[in-house]
Amino acid sequence: MANGILPGDKARAVLEKESKYLCAAAAATTPIVWKEALGATVVDVDDNRYIDFTSGILVANVGHSHPKVVKAIQEQAGKFLNAYNSAHQLRADLCERLTALFPSKLNRALLLTTGAEAIESAVKIAKAYTGKNEIISFNGSFHGKTHLTMSIGGIRQTKEGFGPQASNVVHAPFPYVYHSYYRDEAACVDSCLQQLRETMATSSTGSIAAVVMESYLGSGGCVVPPARFVQGVRQLCDQHNIVFIVDEVQAGFGRTGKMFGFEHYGVVPDIVCLAKGLSAGVPTSAVVAGEGLMKALPPGSASSTYGGNPLSCAAALAVLDVIESEGLVQRAEALGQVLAKRLKELEQKYPFLGEGRSIGLVTGLEIVEDPATRVPSPALANAIVNEAIGRGLALISPTGLYGNVIRMMPPLVISEELMNQGLDILDEAMAKVSDDVSKTQAGE
Ligand SMILES: Cc1ncc(COP(=O)(O)O)c(C=O)c1O
């Protein structure tokens, strides 16, 4: 486990070199300098070990460097690495496997490279299909950092300083019950649906091609919408001939305890965007939609250099095999229940843990100054994360709309014992921070 003095000497050298040559906007936000990772364990360059609660930002659902995925990549690497738009067996196989995971109306796949590229392409499909041009998306959502996707996103930090955003994007409120005016789920959902109807009828031009929605707000702080809200959105899309695009870039491939997040809500989207967990680290994304929608794209308008490359396809096919053979969706559901129970215990123990939300194996710990006022506390959230990392728990920096949400997302292959050890570390870190707060308040 980590020794508490981070970064170590070797890590410091790497961080210093990066600080000289790497674009600062992409700089590391935690002191862990990765050397290797296997399953749910990370080792840094100073040989500190960490229990991984990041999954490399929700990528390693099947665990880091799963032997079957590594083998598939190694075997393919010796054959050929790119074929641009030429047909090959692995691309055909992956499209077949992917579409088989969805209800039958979603029967075509487009293979691309990043999550943002998948969202951009989904929007193009919706515009080409409907002949309309406006997009509705939600406050607090994150869909990527390209110009269009940051504009569709509803997080200020992503777009601040970049001037006028892409036009024809209109935002509506998302049911973030914890920070809502009502603090009541039913009232919050009613209000959000009402405001969405109003947005469509007033600030929109009326030429709405698509509604784009994450199946839970990820970067926005792991905010899980009530099913009634998602069903209401689906209904409005049907009523107004709007394409319903669901962003499953981080929710997909078992993370939420179902293969895809939208399955929790009893709806079927028109277009689904996939990436991250799809191929465990080899950049791969996909858009899955019905034939009618896909056909709206003019020939040649949707390919990209690395889309459907054989390395990605080989990795993704191996990932799908692992998810199936190791029962990872069911595993995420079962372990998710253990996780949720422990979060409730922590809520009772630490008043600054205003809410411990989770869905499957992804959480949002809402760290606040006081549970009554619910004023977000990024400072306490950062202190907890730093304490936990020093004790050997790999976490990402706090995110969420107010920078106060600790997100934890272990690989789905983590053992219950290791996950509990990770949660014990979190508990210790919270106890330490709680102690520090008490001392400060007592003027010590
Ligand atoms: C929900 C969601 N959509 C889209 C993206 C963008 O994916 P990428 O970083 O691969 O472009 C992300 C990345 O974190 C995401 O979480």
Instruction: Please mark out the parts with pLDDT under 50 across 5 or more consecutive residues, or reply none.
Output: none
The overall number of domains is 2
Radius of gyration: 22 Å
Distance between the termini: 31 Å
- Fraction of residues in β-strands: 5-15%
Tell me the number of helical segments per DSSP (H or I, 4 or more residues long): 14
**Alpha-beta content class:** alpha/beta
Describe the protein.
The protein is an alpha/beta fold. The protein folds into two domains: 9-62 and 327-441, Aspartate Aminotransferase, domain 1, CATH 3.90.1150; 67-325, Type I PLP-dependent aspartate aminotransferase-like (Major domain) (Aspartate Aminotransferase, domain 2, 3-Layer(aba) Sandwich). Helices cover 40% and strands 15% of the residues. The chain contains 14 helices and 14 strands. The strands form three sheets. The protein has a seven-stranded mixed β-sheet with strand order 4-10-9-8-7-5-6, with helices on both faces. It has a four-stranded mixed β-sheet with strand order 1-2-3-13. Strands 11-12-14 form a three-stranded antiparallel β-sheet. Helix 9 links the parallel strand 7 (208-214) and strand 8. Helix 12 (328-349) packs parallel to helix 14 and helix 13 (378-390) packs across helix 14. It is globular.
